[in-house]
Amino acid sequence: MRAQYDRKNKENLSFQLPEGLSEEIVREISKQKKEPGWMLAKRLEGLKIFLQKPLPSWGPSLSRLDLSRIRYYLRPDASKNATRWEDVPQDIKNTFERLGIPEAERKSLAGVGAQYESEIVYHNLKKEWEEQGVIFLDCDEGLKKFPEMFRRYFMTSCVPAALHKFSALHAAVWSGGTFIYIPKGVKLTTPLQAYFRMNAMRGGQFEHTLIIIDEGAEAQYIEGCSAPRYDESALHAGCVEIHVLKNARMRYSSIENWSKNTYNLNTKRAIAHEGAIMEWVNGNMGSAVTMLYPATVLAGDNSSTSFLGIAFAGKSQNQDTGSKVIHIGKNTSSVIRSKSISKEGGITSYRGLLSIRKGALNAKASVSCDALMGDARSVSNTYPSIDVVERSASVAHEASVGKISEEQVCYLRSRGLDEKAAAQMIVSGFIEPIVKELPLEYAVELNRLISLEMEGSIG
User: Fold this and answer.
1) What does the alpha-carbon distance between residue 305 and residue 327 come to, in Å, rounded to a whole number?
2) Which domain holds residue 116?
3) Of 258, 292, 326, at which residue does a domain stop?
């Protein structure tokens, strides 16, 4: 099962920049993409901030990540933005077919994009949604076709380059990704999807996802990610920024299954305006190290957000994940539910922030963290940060840790299940709140992945 993700293709690139990061590298990325001057200026400012900021002194160690050896821009030998699956090169097409992308598009998606290395190789939106004014492009095309909208929203109020070291790096070297705009009042009834695949050794992927849900509109978007395994480190430092305007609703779902040599240092943030609803569903399976904390700024009155996430850590994995919510508007509400599974010495940590600012009257917030441990060697941590300066707020927090015990397995075996099936039932029950929020094909895949990883992990 894992082999379908770990299988690598022979490198077939039409252009690549040398490893390492410099002003010349950043300028060349912008030149290759024929970008406007303001984007190059933003890239160079990001590089300046990145070089000034130190690595995080908290969380998992990044000492084994050699940023000077990462290859920051790799263009596959494929047509840019093919709209027919038949036009994608066979080796790339085979990879995505193994991962189920074309089948998912045919069955249940409004549109799909596929990125390979640093560039989008396939992108398509169903005609019924195009006719209603929905924009679904890769970010490079979005920048060219909608420059004013792009400049207004791209890494401004939602994810400024100076947010942290790796948001600055992203600003400097971003490439590819997804640009979505849902017009006022349009309610997308089926999801949009993008899939991001790294193939090259010591590769870096820095896709940018920019989503704008206009007033009264609704949409669902699903991202999947994977990479083959090498002995040397790879880096994923993408960025997702979502603007949910007045009375709009957005659900963002992501299953990240990077290989266990990848450092996943991703940034995801949303701004919810008056009456807006922002929902996050997040699954983190792979990577050597993950540092990821999807955040929502509840800027508007009566806005709300929810986060439902699961992280899995096996041998030599450190999953440092969580969520952040900042309450600013009046009568806002948030619910954070985080689950984690660890085995064979894996480390999972919930790291979250709940901030209720002065003037955020009648804010309501709930945080719950549940951890399931497969053995005594594994580690589960909880690092909640709660900052409340408004007396009218209502806040609840709870955390629990358990393990797959021999007693539970024994009980289920007495009811006719074998040991493997018993353990899988316990795990399936634990992750069920996440699974039921995903489209069917993704729910099945998540269950299969976790069942595979949990084999032999009892007691």
Assistant:
1) 10
2) 3-292
3) 292
